[in-house]
């Protein structure tokens, strides 16, 4: 039975059918030798080959289902921080640029037709200040050094970072890994600055020199800041990873993971040539019609202790959850949020305890008292029940670090995380006192 089970897993569950022996018995029931020879030729050459082929395919399917593993969510925890560009350490293999082009000082980001990119700034301010800054009509400043001229400038949230988060989200979906809200407290505070052209159809192939007067927001502006996270982008070709098998029309390409980085999480970035992605022990398999390929992308999410190089002084923002007995059993038997204690436990598990603490909650029917605000999972669909039709769950927080500019980002992260788990309410968060 053990030898049989190695070749055919279904033998453990059911009696294996021996088609060859069955055909032999049926052939002996034919008395006419010529008819027996003819039937044998037809059955062995026709039906026999079909049965062997189908048996091999079913065994391959059984093996695939048997070996497919559920990737642990803990392998995909994310961390982010900010640094001065001049302090970037390329030898630090735990933190990587969110956007690799940030290292290119001459990179110009596209704006509207009448805009010229000036640079990217970081607004070290709370959420209310950031919203006022973002909604400001324009700012005044001067352009050029020798022949300075007054110009008008405006700011727009840096779209490239939001695009990277959306790409990460879709990579989770394509790899069938549950999405955990990523803390975007830093990434939401980056803004691109554009100069409005004066009708001369100006163009620039590199950032121009300009001084902008940001008025009341000037004390919050930081220049030369770059975000980092624990996600490394990897390029690979079909020559790097051999084809394990060919199944008719399709090919299965293999991306091996593990080794020294066995605790890290890996995601293959889907493209038009990848039809299916599945995870097995120590490898990721990609189904495609292409026999060879170049420059496919994978993401490695580093789970080792984050290293702080010289100049890496900003706090780390993560979506790590504290381990507990109740969390483990709740993951094994997921259930809806039903009690006050469960709500407080879920918030306490989040990595926000140094900044804010959940002090209470209330449920309201007056939706108009709490306008809809953006959450950190803005790209996730609302589901079949629109937010406007749901009751409001108000989460009340108190500050532990009074006046810390990241406090409301911590509230926004907690609300976003709870919102993923609670579809029957629209969650909002407020800072009390």
Properties at a glance:
6-stranded antiparallel beta sheet, 4-stranded antiparallel beta sheet, disordered N terminus, single chain, 433 residues, 20 strands, alpha+beta
Q: Could you walk me through the main structural features you see in this protein, from its secondary elements to its overall organization?
A:
The protein has 433 residues and is α+β, with helices and mostly antiparallel strands. Helices cover 25% and strands 27% of the residues. It has 8 helices and 20 strands. Helix 2 (19-28) packs antiparallel against helix 3.
Radius of gyration: 29 Å
- Unreliable spans are 1-9
What structural class do helix, strand and pairing data support? alpha+beta
Strand content: 25-35%
Strand order of the largest sheet: 7-4-5-6-3-8
Terminal Cα span: 70 Å
Q: Please tell me what the overall shape is.
A: elongated
Describe the oligomeric state of these chains in a short phrase.
single chain
Major sheet: 6 strands, antiparallel
Instruction: Estimate the mean pLDDT confidence.
Output: 83
Walk me through the topology.
Blueprint: H1 2-7, H2 19-28, H3 33-67, E1 79-84, E2 96-97, E3 115-123, H4 127-135, E4 139-143, E5 149-157, H5 159-174, E6 190-196, E7 210-213, E8 221-223, E9 225-229, E10 231-236, E11 245-247, E12 250-256, E13 265-268, E14 274-280, E15 283-288, E16 296-301, E17 317-318, H6 325-332, H7 340-348, E18 356-364, E19 391-399, H8 407-421, E20 425-431
Parallel strand pairs: 19-20
Antiparallel strand pairs: 1-9, 1-17, 2-9, 3-6, 3-8, 4-5, 4-7, 5-6, 10-16, 11-12, 12-15, 13-16, 14-15, 18-19
Helix pairs in contact: 2-3
